[in-house]
Amino acid sequence: MPQHIGYVIKRYLDAKGMQQNELAECIGVRQETVSRWVHAIGKPRPFNLQKIAKCLKMDVDTLVAEAEGHVKISGGGSPQVGGGVVFQTFTIDSGAITVRAKDGKLIVGIAN
Questions:
Q1: pTM, whole model, 2 decimals?
Q2: What gap in Å lies between CA 86 and CA 66, rounded to an integer?
Q3: Rounded CA separation 111/38 (Å)
Q4: Domains of the chain
């Protein structure tokens, strides 16, 4: 299900232990701007998405795909978009990794 890009940014900030002011400094905007994004009051401009992804050490496609509802994270980890396949779920649970396509088919399953 699609969600506001700000909520996705907030989750990644929390997961990486970053503060809004740190992201703001990294991309060259005011902390108030980042606050507006994470509270779904505004959205980052397209040219800032690449900067945000770089500061969060992630791929911009992953950031956007998650906001569009193509990628879901459960149990931690980083979702991936690549090879023409958009993963629906990427789960890490007690050392097991499961990746499923949008149709629910198992792409990768690795157990501890």
A1: 0.60
A2: 10
A3: 35
A4: 1-69 (1.10.260.40), 71-112 (no CATH)
